[in-house]
Amino acid sequence: MGERDAAKRVFFHTLGCQMNDYDTGKMRALLAADGYASTDDPELADLIVVNTCSIREKAVEKMHSVLGEYRRAKRSRPLTLGVAGCVAQERGEQLMAKYPDIDLMFGPDGVPHVRELVREAVAGKRVLDIDLLDLENYPFVSEVDPAQSGVGAFVTIQKGCDNACTFCIVPQTRGVEVSRPWEQILEEVRTVVARGARDITLIGQNVNSYGLKLGGGVTFAQLLYKVAEVPGVTHIRYTTSHPRDMGDDVVQAYRDLPQLASHLHLPVQSGSNRVLRRMKRFYTRERYLEVVAALRAARPGMVFTTDVIVGFPGETDDDFEQTMNLLHEVGFIGTFSFKYSPRPGTPALKLEMRDPVSDAVAGARLTRYQDAQRALSLAWHRALEGSTVPVLVHGWSAHDPEVVMGRTSDFAAINFPGDASLFGRTLPVTITRGFTHSARGEASR
Ligand code: 5AD
Ligand code: SF4
After folding, report:
1. Can you give the residue range of the structural domain that contains 434?
2. Residue 20 burial (CB count, 10 A)
3. Do 277 and 241 lie in a common domain?
4. Coil, helix or strand for 45?
């Protein structure tokens, strides 16, 4: 066969959150139907799609440097260059004007019709699609990422976000909240389980409000019970939760469902009520602690990770001390902590103009927070030393050959000598040494 019949190849460069990873997987699945094989080597690609993130300015800067690389590649060979995701949604028109060699630009709502968009671009048209889709009948993609084969799998349950946290750009980029019908969710869970998945993470911007508005058909708690009924599901996790919406029915599920992981990622953002009010988070520090206590009563030993922003406009030393103090009070085992980054079009920008926190102060706070978090994470992994815990094996460890990595229900990463026959199995492992981000052990016999 001639050169022209060779398979077309697509390379994805994905920045940002697990929602973007998931969207990339859906695009991979959809484009496969048009004959695109996915490649790990951008130099072999006929089509490159950069899936972008706009959550903080750093992510946008990263996009510009990544795009520079592919735009240079395009000068020496035929290549279709696309930009997808949150930056495309937020400033697609500007980017098209700035970079005339970009062929295709679309936001997260463009993912379901990526095939048409790519076809138009390959036919020579410059394509800009940043329309947000209608709420009714939002076309959740049912095709599953052909590259999905691991023990861990993400399944989307919702798109968009109806909150209005004053620092956050996501409501602008991912549009309004729509829940995915539960039957479709279960079908996807069954498909990934058939391919070997055991540790299922249900994802959405605000999963606790699943089903309350459009779509879904059941509540979030009811959905958890349904997922737990799928044979082969060992662990169920979900992200992201909003502390305000954590209902008693979800707490009850922790009593009833052993599959529900004993770890929850519950973003708090700040330990100060004054800052929480200015962020429009609609809960207090006290309410947050009540949710933590209720979950720990339902599931003894439950652990928490969180997101924290330091240097939000107007944050005083005293506000920050309250965040430090909450870190210790909850005993978070991990935090994604960030300096506040002003985002275009967000309400906090006005506060930022009146009441900014200097970069030096924010930086010092971030360092202090992260040092304290590291010490807590280390202490938690060390406390496991000598105990024997059930570990679900996910795959090879990142660094050592002949060492596998598995996760406990509370999400500790455990490395121990083993082989591929263990993937997907749960077995008791005795912990020999705890580190900051993982622990080491030996399979017990
Ligand atoms: N600046 C810094 N961090 C932010 N996040 C969201 N918006 C911003 C911003 N403007 C953080 C929040 C959120 C996580 C996904 O990113 O902590 O929970
Ligand atoms: Fe994900 Fe938010 Fe970044 Fe979009 S802006 S990729 S939703 S983290």
Report:
1. 388-443
2. 21
3. yes
4. coil
Partners of 265 in beta bridges: 305
- The tokens for 372 are 């304290």
In angstroms, rounded to a whole number, what is the distance separating the alpha carbons of residues 284 and 364? 25
Of 155, 298, 303, nearest to 226 by C-alpha is: 155
Burial profile 324-347: b = 16 or more Cβ within 10 angstroms, e = fewer: bebbeebebbbbebbbbbebeebb
DSSP letters spanning 412-437: -EEEEE--GGGTT-EEEEEEEEE-SS
Q: Which of 17, 18, 106 to mutate to test the pocket of ligand 2 (most atoms within 8 A of CB)?
A: 17
- Integer Cα distance of 401 and 309 in angstroms: 37
In ligand 1, which atom is closest to the CA atom of 308?
17
Report the number of distinct structural domains present in the chain: 3
Spatial strand order of the sheet with 152-156 comes to 152-156, 199-203, 235-239
Question: In the structure encoding, which two tokens stand for residue 96, read together?
Answer: 């098209």
| Bond into 240 cis (ω within 30) | yes
CA nearest 389: which of 434, 426, 417? 426
CA distance 34 to 48: 15
**What pLDDT digit, counting tens, does each position of 209-244 carry?**
999 887 778 999 999 999 999 999 999 999 999 999
Which residues, including other chains, have CB under 8 Å from residue 300's CB and lie 6 or more apart?
A: none
Residue from 53, 55, 207 to probe ligand 1 pocket by mutation (most atoms less than 8 Å from CB): 55
26-37: b (≥16 Cβ within 10 Å) or e: bbbbbbbeeebb
Residues lining ligand 2, judged by CB closer than 6 Å?
16-17, 19-20, 53-55, 85-86, 169-170, 173-174
For residue 248 the two structure tokens come to 């008693």
Give the confidence band of 2 by pLDDT, cuts at 50, 70, 90: very low
Report field, pTM of the whole predicted structure over 0.85 = yes
pLDDT of residue 3: 45
Reported as a single tens digit per residue, the pLDDT across 280-307 is 999 999 999 999 999 999 999 999 999 9
CATH assignment of the domain containing 98: 3.40.50.12160
How much distance in Å is there from the Cα of 342 to the middle of ligand 1? Answer: 10
Q: At 191, which amino acid appears?
A: T
Specify if 343 maps to a domain. Answer: no
